[in-house]
Q: What sequence folds into this?
């Protein structure tokens, strides 16, 4: 029996929030009106559609996170790096362009002396260095324009910042340096949820500039492999053994990855079952696509034998039919068979 649309919308918003946002975000979310629920469900359908077609994911990360001393000396060195010592154009929060060694020197002096100022040596971070990146082949001008709009939206409260677009590597990327203290003296203190919001904002700005971009957590896509930090890679390349890092046994990594995705599979399963019972054919088709998407996740390649269940490819529900019998106990085809 088909489910009413309001039920389908509620299921999408409820489980989609758990999948794409913080796991307990739905518990703190305000009650939505019918119109609000309809809008949130439309947003969630768009998010799911981008994820199913594997839209390129944006990368937003804070660099130099391990550095503790972030006085003007460190800031000056980083500005020289991203500007290639004045050869690459910088753009500030006012849209002014900074090119050349003299202009770069004027910028660093202004940052050191104006506003709250930046001491030459400091035990506190004075500038956040943010990297915005997209995969190779992405339109470079669009990446730069999206980075400009992203910075204005997130830091356009009078806070000083500059950014530089680098074209010397295959993947288009922008380095953004933003002062920690704003005009009111408040310090930036980004957390994990802020970084996810930054990713979503940058992806939205890219779409505004005609570039397909998505911002989903790794876990929602079944991506589990994590690589060592560059410092660890360099140590290993030199034949040295890092003191505080060692790889886990393959079986331990596999079991940990699989266990960590229990909530992810549950969210995809509930959304797929709900969509399979929708009156709208587009929803039913999307429900089938969800099953195949989960079955093709990278984490499925290391699926423990004891966890392998029914192969849904053998009796895939017809997208034209509203009913979809649950006999698998899981979502997605078993790619190991």
A:
């Amino acid at each position: 029996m088909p489910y009413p649309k309001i039920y389908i919308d509620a299921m999408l918003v409820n489980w989609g929030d758990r999948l794409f946002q913080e796991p307990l975000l739905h518990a703190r979310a305000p009650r939505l009106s019918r119109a609000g629920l309809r809008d949130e469900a439309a947003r969630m359908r768009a998010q799911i559609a981008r994820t199913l077609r594997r839209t390129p994911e944006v990368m937003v990360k804070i660099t130099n996170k391990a550095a503790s001393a972030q006085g003007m000396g460190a800031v000056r060195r980083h500005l020289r790096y991203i500007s290639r010592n004045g050869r690459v154009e910088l753009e500030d929060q006012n849209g002014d362009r900074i090119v050349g060694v003299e202009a770069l020197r004027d910028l660093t002096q202004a940052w050191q002396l104006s506003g709250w100022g930046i001491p030459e040596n400091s035990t506190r971070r004075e500038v956040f260095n943010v990297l915005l990146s997209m995969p190779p082949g992405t339109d470079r001008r669009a990446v730069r324009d999206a980075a400009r709009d992203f910075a204005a939206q997130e830091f356009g409260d009078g806070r000083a910042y500059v950014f530089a677009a680098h074209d010397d590597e295959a993947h288009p990327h922008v380095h953004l340096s933003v002062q920690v203290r704003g005009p009111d003296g408040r310090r930036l203190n980004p957390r994990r949820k802020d970084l996810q919001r930054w990713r979503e904002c940058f992806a939205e700005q890219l779409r505004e500039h005609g570039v397909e971009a998505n911002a989903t957590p790794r876990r929602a896509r079944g991506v589990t492999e994590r690589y060592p930090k560059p410092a660890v890679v360099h140590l290993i390349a030199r034949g040295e053994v890092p003191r505080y890092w060692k790889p886990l046994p393959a079986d331990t990594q596999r079991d940990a990855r699989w266990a960590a995705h229990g909530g992810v599979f549950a969210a995809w399963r509930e959304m797929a079952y709900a969509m399979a019972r929708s009156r709208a054919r587009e929803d039913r088709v999307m429900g089938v696509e969800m099953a195949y998407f989960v079955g093709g996740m990278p984490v499925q390649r290391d699926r423990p034998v004891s966890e392998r269940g029914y192969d849904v490819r053998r009796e895939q529900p017809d997208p034209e039919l509203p009913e979809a019998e649950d006999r698998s106990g899981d979502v997605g085809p078993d790619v190991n068979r």
About this structure: Confidence is low (pLDDT under 50) at residues 308-337. The CA atoms of residues 142 and 216 lie 20 Å apart. Strands lie at 59-63, 90-92, 97-98, 127-133, 161-166, 173-179. The two ends are 32 Å apart (CA to CA).
